[in-house]
Amino acid sequence: MADKQMTFSELILSIKLIHTEMASQAGKAINISLTLRNCIIGYYIAEYEQRGADRSKYGDRIIDELSSHLQTGGLERCDRRELYRYRLFYKTYPQIVETASPQLLSIGLQGIEKVEPPTPKLQIPAKQLVEKLSFSHLAELIKIDDHLKRTYYEVECIKGCWSVRELKRQIASLYYERSGLSNDKKKLAEMVKSGTEIAEPKLAIRDPYIFEFLGLKPKEVMGESDLENELTDKLQEFLLELGHGFCFEDRQKRILIGDTYGFIDLVFYHRILKCHILIDLKLEKFSHENIGQLNTYVSWYKRNIMTEGDNPPIGLLLCTQKDHPLVEYALAGMDNHLFVSKYQLELPRTEQLQNFLEEQIKEMGQ
Questions:
Q1: What is the pTM for the complete model shown?
Q2: 318-354 per-position pLDDT tens digit
Q3: Which terminus of the chain, N or C, has fewer Cβ atoms within 10 Å?
């Protein structure tokens, strides 16, 4: 390298290449640690349920009690649902535990028995599974009971570099069943591969499993851009300064609907209207997809968070463009016209929000 003079274009290319390579290595290292952590937790639980010295004391409440103690101690991703997932993960992929280092295995793992797979010829090596698939991929795969079907998706997922979303899409589209009926499996695989969403090699920091494992908070990692982060900060201050009863509750509020996580930019409780106000900020034109997503969040809040004495939650969608902000309110089915009139008096006027967004975007030089 010393005998060759580098051009500026080569300098840029070299920096990009080393960044991509190191980001890929960092992502792999973190994912492997997370996958092993979850599988070993599953092993602990399964072993205790079978041979725990005082397991009879807890009976069917083992996981409930364990979850309560772990969450009280501040451990993330140890709620009842996740602990059941870890146990299923270990029982589905017991061979993964064996890929852990001797030092890691020595932490509470004594006399672990080697587990023979049910059909060795149809099993991808555990090391390859851990290195090629994220825990989010594996969490989808353990939902498949049929071993052959699960192995099929493992192979296709690794071969096609599928993202988690693409894996879900292929399972939902019955790719395995369709390939079984197809006379030309190779052609079908090529067709699917050409239309897949490829997983990026960089660290998938937006994965809730990853950022909670690293001790990060949603606010630190979920902002779609620096502009959106700054606008959301200013918006939070703006609404609180209006003094119309806004009480700030949360930022980047994570909610789980089925197996899908959603993130609400800002959550307030309005002491005058007696309801939650969910605010979603989009740096794009208004679309039915945006309002549909917000309405889903509002409906979830109404069913899971709303208590006696509360009015139904309100969704506030802010869609911005450089020259033309558009504001839409999602009433989420509120048909009490008196209440609608009251909320129109208590909440910021459309003009106020439009002016605020225009001023902030102009100040940011966008």
A1: 0.63
A2: 887 655 666 766 655 555 555 666 666 677 877 788 7
A3: N
Neighbours of 248 (CB within 10 A): 13
Closest C-alpha to 142, from 206, 70, 69, 85: 85
Where residue 42 falls among pLDDT bands split at 50, 70, 90?
very high
Domain ranges of the chain: 8-109+119-194, 218-363
Q: How many other CB atoms sit within 10 Å of the CB of residue 182?
A: 13
Burial class, 297, CB count within 10 angstroms (exposed 0-12 / middle 13-18 / buried 19+)? buried
pLDDT tens for residues 286-320?
A: 777 778 888 889 889 989 999 888 888 888 888 87
Q: How many CB atoms lie within 10 A of CB 177?
A: 10
Task: Give the residue with greater pLDDT, 284 vs 22.
Answer: 22
What are the DSSP calls for 257-268, one per residue? ETTEEEEEEEEE
Residue 68 identity (one-letter amino acid)? S
Give the CATH number of domain 218-363: 3.40.1350.10
- For the purposes of burial, counting CB atoms within 10 Å of the CB of 320, is it exposed (0-12), middle (13-18) or buried (19 or more)? buried
